[in-house]
Amino acid sequence: MSFYEPEGYIDSTDYPPLPRHSYLECTYNVTVYTGYGVELQVKSVNLSDGEVLSIRGVDGDALVVLANQTLLVEGQVIRSPTNTISVYFRTFPDEAPGTFQLHYQVFMLSCNFPRRPDFGDVTVMDLHSGGVAHFHCHLGYELQGPKALTCINASRPHWSSPEPICSAPCGGTVHNATIGRVLSPSYPGNQTSGMACVWSIEAPRGQKLHLHFEKLLLDEKDRMVVYSGDTNRSAVLYDSLRADSVPFEGVISDGSSIRIDFVAAEPAAATAFNIRFEAFERGHCYEPYIQNGNFTTSDPTYNLGTTVEFTCDPGHSLEQGPAVIECVNMRDPYWNDTEPLCRATCGGELSAVAGVILSPNWPEPYTEGEDCIWRVHVGEEKRLFLDIQLLNITNSDILTIYDGDELTTRVLGQFVGSSGPQKLYSSSPDLTIQFHSDPAGLIFGKGQGFIMNYIEVSRNDSCSDLPEIQNGWKTTSHTELVRGAKITYQCDPGYDIVGSDTLTCQWDLSWSSDPPFCEKIMYCTDPGEVEHSTRLISDPVLLVGTTIQYTCNAGFVLEGSSLLTCYSRETGTPIWTSRLPHCVPEAAAETSLEGGNMALAIFIPVLIISLLLGGAYIYITRCRYYSSLRLPLMYSHPYSQITVETEFDNPIYETGVSGRGARAVLPRSAGWCERRQGKGLSASPLAGAALPNQAVYHGSPCIWRLT
């Protein structure tokens, strides 16, 4: 079965599979214009155990399986890599086939987003055929591979070549240098021998070069030599084997070129250096640089007399230099002092209303044997909130937080190893933080460090109120959020709570945890096993769209639906499409059927007789009320309620000219008639007979014969 429309449905009930060998099968192919692909969305799928539904991409004569019946769930989207997609369905001839419905539509094919290189970036203009991706590396790294890739082949788009990488070269030459970096070279993964690298840096004519050592960690077998010239016979500015310390203030060339030689006997993980270079005009000072900080200048060209003021990033403080330097010396200008360093210090006294505390030497790893103490003090009527954002220390290092200005006060928290964010409140305006790193430092290695922020907050006797949560609500145990008060969160039907549902206001007026949130439930509960059966589950997580197929063991018959599907509802949790079936013995099922037939054979005749009797009763009742004969015994008279017998001393009767018109007033009972015999009347009660002479009676019927 083939489809060529830009949008449509593939419904197995509209195009059922056809016999082929011992199966029923069908293949549905969707083909669209070149340059476009086919996007399938699963609308419904209800398959039996053993049935096959496979969605495949078509690439020439090759078929690539994109998804099959074990992975298909309602709402899932599958995209073809080319302009054709194929759906294969196979079922059994002796069973009712499963059903599915797929919606398809076209989309424009495109290349995947290219991978960003480490130590570099990528800029993409367009992902469709003809689009270009541009790559570049960070300062000090070189691009290994093409600078630009093009998305080609509209029928199956892909990039013109593999993505490039950024690596630090082992040596090189830089002409007309303005600003750049020399980095420790990247070792190939399989390299075991040493290396020798030479960098030659040449500034424009008439300019000089300044080197700033941002980082320099060398192995004891490594050596670095910096020459003020382009040969190894030039004057030496720095030699790692002869220097007692690293010149972090930097070095300046005598001319317009510098040479850097680096020799490593073998690859060493500890070796790392980052050297920043820049060219500057003669008669000017070079542009200062400070890591983990910033500066302001009175003259951006750094002429004679220019002043520069340095500041450090939060958590760092100035070391090894003044905060202000000046460009001096008219003949050969230079700074009157070296640039300072911004370091994360080991301990200190802090009194600002807010601040940052970093592990020593951050962002570099802290060293072994550190013993640091920070004391924080804020306003007397305030307290402190401490937010530990990053905590990554080794298991032999200890970070302790004290609630006060001494190490003898109560411990708010003590941490080793790595942990998630922490939030602490002090009960006073003072906080003491102690960090101790293992002097050995070799057993557990080095940790990354820590970052924590503190801020002054108001002191009160209650916790701050917590927010409402979406798709849920909260209840409070106390009117005021005092110490010990609890807030309990609950979710609306169809949602699960994520996080702690009960939060307690602690003694330090902080909550025991962060508020939870409500997450939509997208799975069904396990309906359970059926005795004497096996089951096949399409998804063990039981997400929406999951099907469970029950099959009874031999000798048992299934009662109920064999296939259960988990489906979502707008309100409430997802549920199964039907109740859990049962497997009953075949003999019991046949007995149940025979008993049902016998009950049916008895019930039908009884029903027919009841209907006939009911019809007869209704017919007689209608005749009684509407018959023109008006039978006397079928009607009651108002006088029939009188129970006391009445006797008349003077009987009243009337006679007419003829017997036909004679009228008589009758007494209530036949006994009265008998007592009147011999008085000219003879009576005989005729119950239920009509009076031929139209007598008006008031009791039991009597007939008088006039004598």
UniProtKB/TrEMBL annotation:
<dbReference type="InterPro" id="IPR000859">
    <property type="entry name" value="CUB_dom"/>
</dbReference>
<dbReference type="InterPro" id="IPR051277">
    <property type="entry name" value="SEZ6_CSMD_C4BPB_Regulators"/>
</dbReference>
<keyword id="KW-0812">Transmembrane</keyword>
<dbReference type="Pfam" id="PF00431">
    <property type="entry name" value="CUB"/>
</dbReference>
<feature type="disulfide bond">
    <location>
        <begin position="491"/>
        <end position="518"/>
    </location>
</feature>
<feature type="transmembrane region" description="Helical">
    <location>
        <begin position="598"/>
        <end position="620"/>
    </location>
</feature>
<feature type="domain" description="Sushi">
    <location>
        <begin position="461"/>
        <end position="520"/>
    </location>
</feature>
<dbReference type="GO" id="GO:0060074">
    <property type="term" value="P:synapse maturation"/>
</dbReference>
<feature type="domain" description="Sushi">
    <location>
        <begin position="109"/>
        <end position="168"/>
    </location>
</feature>
<feature type="domain" description="CUB">
    <location>
        <begin position="346"/>
        <end position="457"/>
    </location>
</feature>
<feature type="domain" description="Sushi">
    <location>
        <begin position="522"/>
        <end position="585"/>
    </location>
</feature>
<dbReference type="InterPro" id="IPR035976">
    <property type="entry name" value="Sushi/SCR/CCP_sf"/>
</dbReference>
<dbReference type="GO" id="GO:0090036">
    <property type="term" value="P:regulation of protein kinase C signaling"/>
</dbReference>
<dbReference type="InterPro" id="IPR035914">
    <property type="entry name" value="Sperma_CUB_dom_sf"/>
</dbReference>
<keyword id="KW-1133">Transmembrane helix</keyword>
<keyword id="KW-0677">Repeat</keyword>
<feature type="domain" description="CUB">
    <location>
        <begin position="170"/>
        <end position="280"/>
    </location>
</feature>
<dbReference type="GO" id="GO:0005783">
    <property type="term" value="C:endoplasmic reticulum"/>
</dbReference>
<keyword id="KW-1015">Disulfide bond</keyword>
<protein>
    <submittedName>
        <fullName>Seizure related 6 homolog like</fullName>
    </submittedName>
</protein>
<dbReference type="InterPro" id="IPR000436">
    <property type="entry name" value="Sushi_SCR_CCP_dom"/>
</dbReference>
<dbReference type="Pfam" id="PF00084">
    <property type="entry name" value="Sushi"/>
</dbReference>
<keyword id="KW-0768">Sushi</keyword>
<dbReference type="GO" id="GO:0043025">
    <property type="term" value="C:neuronal cell body"/>
</dbReference>
<keyword id="KW-0472">Membrane</keyword>
<feature type="disulfide bond">
    <location>
        <begin position="170"/>
        <end position="197"/>
    </location>
</feature>
<feature type="domain" description="Sushi">
    <location>
        <begin position="283"/>
        <end position="344"/>
    </location>
</feature>
